[in-house]
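Example (one chain per record):
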Amino acid sequence: MLGATLEDYELFIYALQDEYPVIREATLTVIRQASNVATVEGALYFDAGVRLQVVEVVRFDVIPPRLSRYGYEIWRNNEKLYWYDPQGHPNDPTLAATHPHHKHIPPDIKHHRIPAPGLSFTEPNLPFLICEIAALINDPTVSTPA
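Predicted structure:
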């Protein structure tokens, strides 16, 4: 779960670099929109020129707390490798298993989409993404979250 309060999620965000040493630099910022709604924006930087651009809107004014919107882009230097978003594609039966969560991948990154079973609106997505990036850059010290 995202945590009981916005403060819990804020602590989670600001502790990511301590929890995952594979992160070389973190510029994520929690921007409060209201007492129980915030936007998370910024990037996590890894070896090999890889970075994860993050945009999340997190809401604690609903039960259970949830991400109401997200976008995650993975870059290597100036090349976008892939991205995740929850924009629905109900006419694409190949995405039904994880609707609306999906991943855009090459060769036609805008139109080539696959299911994204590791993403959720009610669980933090960043541990999954950090582990995926650690595997991409071959960092064996990071294991997939339980």
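Caption: The longest strand covers residues 66-76.
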